[in-house]
Every structure is written in structure tokens, then in C-alpha cells.
From TrEMBL:
It is found in: Membrane. GO terms for cellular component: membrane. The keyword Transport applies. Belongs to the TMEM175 family. This is DUF1211 domain-containing protein.
Amino acid sequence: MNKNRLEAFSDGVLAIIITIMILEIKAPEESSFESLKPLIPALLSYVLSFAYIGIYWNNHHHMFQVVKKINGSILWSNMFLLFWLSLIPFGTSWIGEHHFAAVPMSIYGFILFMAAISYTILQNKIIKLEGPDSILQKAVEKDIKGKISATCYILAIPLAFVSPWISGLLYITVALLWIIPDARIEKQINKI
């Protein structure tokens, strides 16, 4: 199977996700700077979620640069990833509207955790198809950033009930960890 349709579909879904998130933020009825103040939580949650969608788009793009073939299992794994990413606008809206309250923050973390798990599943399906000597396998074999991310999410979900701000800092930490493009795949490509 050709990977181009999978990439194009994924790009389209991610673009729609970003569009949905910004449409959730309503412009104030007044034209003063003061009227923007109530929108600060919604804007902050949008910025964080936009960064996450951008990170997933960037890493998905890098991963599929080295993919030679796909199969049905990879198609469904990609759909599973897109499902969890499509829930980010819901979580974004909820944490923004409720000013980072505990339950919305924990659900947001669960969505991020499941997106990370589904990305790992997709990655592993690709490695299984392409073999243990594939570029992707060599690039991600240690996956320290992935393990740190999963740990942060696992901690952030229950910590939202202790302090939503701690959860928020953990979500920001993971985003900052990944905001610098993951060069592991490019390093493997350059070795060829």
C-alpha cells in the first residue's frame, strides 16, 4: 500500500482539529483590552493544545519520511491516533471554560496520555512491518523522551486533584520536551 493517502488524510484531520480549537474561542463583544481578560484561560489552553497538535504533526511527518510501506494494521493504528488527537479540542475547550479545574485537567491529561500510547502503537506497527533493522527501529529504540512523557502524564492525571497547576506544568514540560523537533530519525537517515 502507498503511504501518501494516509499522510494526506492525517494532515487534513490535524488541520481540522486546529480549526475546531480556534472556532471554540469567541471574540469579546466589546473592543477593549479589558474584555480580553476573561478569555485568557481559553487562549492559554489553545496555545498549549496548538503546540501539542504541531508536535504530533511534526513527528508524524518525520516518522513517515522513513516508512517504505504500510498495511491495514498501520492504517487502523493511525486512525486510533487521530481519534485521540480529535478529542484534544474537547479537552482544550473544557479546561479553558472552567479555568483549569481538576476534572477537566485530569481528562485533558488522559487524552494526551492516550494520544501518546496510540502514537507508540502506530510506531510499533510500522517497526513490526519494516523489521528490526528499519531506520525507525534504530531511531526510537531507547525512546527516553517517550518514557518521560508517559510518566509525566501518569503523574499529572491524579495530581490534577491535588493541584491543577502541577498538572499544567507537567503538560507544559512534555510539550517543551518535544517542541524541539525530534532529530532521531534524521540522524539515522544521515547515517545511510
